[in-house]
């Protein structure tokens, strides 16, 4: 507010501009300015303002008493310093007033002369303006005439321009038609170029494959020659070992035949005892069911009698009712005891069935392991393989199905045990098959890949190749596609699992194969790697993944016709690589394996009913 009042008083700003600038209301500012002006007028009447030096820059207002004292001090100072009296000071004051009036008169004269000069200049300016107006009017007439001429010229130019534009449009339409034809020709040429590029890419790819295959075949030939030399040396060694083994095993085979006969007898006795136990249990169950029916009938009769007795003899026959209650309690106790015994025997029978199933499964697993080992040895020692098969045929005769593995529990069933026992055993076999998933073995679960595993992987890759378009399309969910593949594998008797479990197993298997394929591709590109072995199922995976940009990047042709290959080393998110399982193999000499197999046969002959976990021990090195 103070700064706004100051601006208005010093005539620097108006009331409106000061109120807008300082954000003050106009009426309040007007009141403050009036008060300030009245105060200044009163002070001018009563007091004089004294200006201090340059450092101060403001005015101090004195009171009347102070002013009288100061005037007295000034007069005394003038008398003391300059010898001036009051008359001298009055004369000086009048002189000062005369000088000021003279200055005012001179200023007024100067202003009058300036005004006269301004009037003369104004008259000259009026004369000049009259002359200019005449010139402007004359020029305006000329300009109007030129405008009319220009309009006529413009009309003529527009007509000629329209004719030229129409001709240009016709030419442009012709050029557009030519450009469209050339554009279509260019598109056809681009399509042909793309086809030629693809043919060139695939031809280069096939050439590289053939060259690589030729190099690999040369290396394989060299390796096979080395293996043949090594096998010849090994055959020479094994011939000497076989001569020694024939002499050694001739006596043992006779012992094995004798032990097998004793084992058959033990098995017959054991199976007869089990058959009798089963028959007793069935009789016992029928007796229990009869007792339950009899007890329920008795309870109904007694309840009916109680209601009749209570209605007839409500007064004073409490002893009879108490006796009946005691009888009922005894019946209930006996019934509970019988039911507990039955439950115990059922549990005991269930445990026996489970043990039978486990024994059968373990026997099958051990025989499959033995046969695999015998097949390995049979490659180098066919004589030992023949002896082993003869021993199995003699000591463990097979059932009607030749392909199913033979176990001691099913070998001697037909000759001694009656038909009822055979039916029970068949039921047990079917139950065991149902328990183990219909007798199906999970694929890719063994440490060493079997022939069924290889067939399952080839079929999996075929299905993945057929459904590659669906996998590339984002509309289809990948989980459902893997579930379909797992379902088809299960239908082809390659049991993988059901639902999400089977789908996850198939996905992991494909991811592992893809990881090995990509690793081989990356190593092949690197320098200084030497010879790299091809991963399994390389060609099938190349048909599925070879055309993808992530595995084999596209060839981009520059303007200078130079081939630039863009490399990308990334794998699909759907198929994240899973680390391979570490395989542990036994490194054994064939003589040691033969000894181990003979020990297993002797153990089976001596005590076939024990679990093979306690009997058979593998010597791992």
UniProtKB/TrEMBL annotation:
Annotated region (Disordered), positions in chain: 396-439
Alphabetical list of InterPro entries matching this protein: HTH_Psq, Myb_DNA-bind_4
One annotated GO molecular function: DNA binding
Extent of Polar residues compositional bias: 412-425
Domain Myb/SANT-like DNA-binding as annotated: residue spans: 455-544
Keywords, alphabetical: Coiled coil
Coiled coil: 108-341
Top-level taxon of origin: Eukaryota
Biased composition (Low complexity): 397-411
Residues in the signal sequence: none
Pfam families noted in UniProt: HTH_psq, Myb_DNA-bind_4
Domain HTH psq-type: 1-35
Name of the protein: Myb-like domain-containing protein
């Amino acid at each position: 507010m103070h700064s706004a009042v100051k601006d208005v008083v010093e005539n620097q700003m108006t009331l409106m501009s000061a109120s807008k600038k300082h954000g003050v209301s106009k009426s309040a500012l007007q009141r403050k300015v009036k008060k300030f002006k009245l105060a200044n007028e009163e002070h001018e009447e009563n007091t004089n303002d004294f200006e201090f030096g340059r450092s101060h820059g403001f005015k101090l207002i004195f009171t009347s008493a102070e002013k009288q004292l100061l005037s007295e001090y000034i007069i005394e100072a003038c008398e003391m310093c300059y010898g001036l009296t009051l008359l001298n000071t009055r004369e000086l004051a009048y002189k000062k007033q005369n000088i000021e009036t003279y200055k005012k008169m001179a200023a007024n004269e100067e202003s009058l002369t300036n005004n006269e000069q301004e009037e003369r200049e104004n008259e000259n300016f009026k004369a000049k303006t009259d002359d200019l107006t005449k010139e402007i009017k004359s020029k305006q007439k000329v300009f109007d005439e030129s405008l009319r001429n220009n309009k006529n010229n413009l009309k003529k130019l527009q007509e000629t321009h329209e004719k030229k534009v129409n001709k240009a449009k016709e030419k442009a339409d012709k050029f557009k038609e030519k450009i469209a034809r050339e554009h279509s020709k260019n598109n056809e040429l681009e399509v042909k170029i793309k086809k030629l590029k693809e043919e060139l890419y695939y031809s280069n790819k096939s050439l590289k494959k053939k060259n690589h295959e030729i190099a690999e075949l040369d290396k394989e030939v060299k390796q096979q020659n080395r293996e043949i030399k090594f096998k010849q040396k090994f055959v020479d060694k094994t011939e000497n070992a076989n001569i020694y083994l024939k002499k050694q095993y001739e006596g043992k085979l006779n012992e094995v035949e004798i032990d097998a006969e004793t084992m058959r007898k033990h098995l017959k006795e054991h199976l007869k005892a089990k058959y009798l136990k089963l028959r007793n249990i069935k009789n016992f169950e029928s007796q229990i069911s009869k007792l339950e029916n009899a007890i329920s009938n008795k309870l109904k009769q007694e309840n009916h009698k109680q209601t009749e007795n209570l209605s007839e003899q409500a007064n004073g026959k409490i002893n009879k009712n108490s006796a009946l209650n005691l009888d009922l309690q005894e019946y209930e106790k006996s019934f509970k005891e019988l039911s507990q015994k039955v439950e115990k025997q059922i549990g005991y029978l269930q445990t026996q069935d489970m043990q039978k199933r486990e024994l059968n499964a373990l026997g099958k697993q051990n025989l499959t392991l033995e046969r695999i080992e015998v097949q390995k040895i049979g490659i180098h020692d066919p004589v030992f393989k023949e002896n082993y098969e003869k021993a199995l045929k003699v000591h463990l005769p097979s059932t009607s199905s030749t392909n199913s593995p033979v176990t001691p529990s099913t070998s001697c069933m037909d000759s001694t045990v009656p038909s009822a026992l055979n039916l029970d055993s068949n039921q047990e076999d079917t139950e065991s098959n149902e328990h183990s998933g219909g007798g199906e073995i999970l694929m890719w679960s063994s440490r060493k890949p079997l022939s069924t595993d290889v067939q399952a992987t080839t079929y999996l890759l075929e299905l993945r190749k057929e459904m590659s378009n669906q996998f590339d399309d984002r509309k289809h969910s990948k989980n459902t596609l893997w579930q379909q593949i797992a379902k088809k594998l299960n239908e082809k008797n390659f049991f993988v699992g059901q639902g999400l479990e089977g789908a996850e197993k198939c996905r992991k298997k494909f991811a592992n194969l893809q990881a090995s394929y990509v690793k081989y591709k990356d190593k092949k590109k690197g320098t200084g790697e030497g010879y790299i072995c091809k991963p399994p199922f390389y060609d099938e995976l190349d048909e599925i993944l070879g055309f993808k940009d992530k595995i084999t990047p596209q060839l981009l042709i520059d303007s200078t016709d130079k081939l630039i290959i863009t490399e990308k080393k990334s794998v699909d998110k759907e198929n994240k690589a899973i680390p391979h399982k570490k395989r542990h193999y036994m490194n054994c000499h064939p003589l040691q394996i033969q000894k181990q197999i003979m020990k297993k046969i002797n153990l089976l002959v001596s005590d076939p009913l024990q679990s093979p976990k306690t009997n058979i021990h593998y010597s791992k090195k």
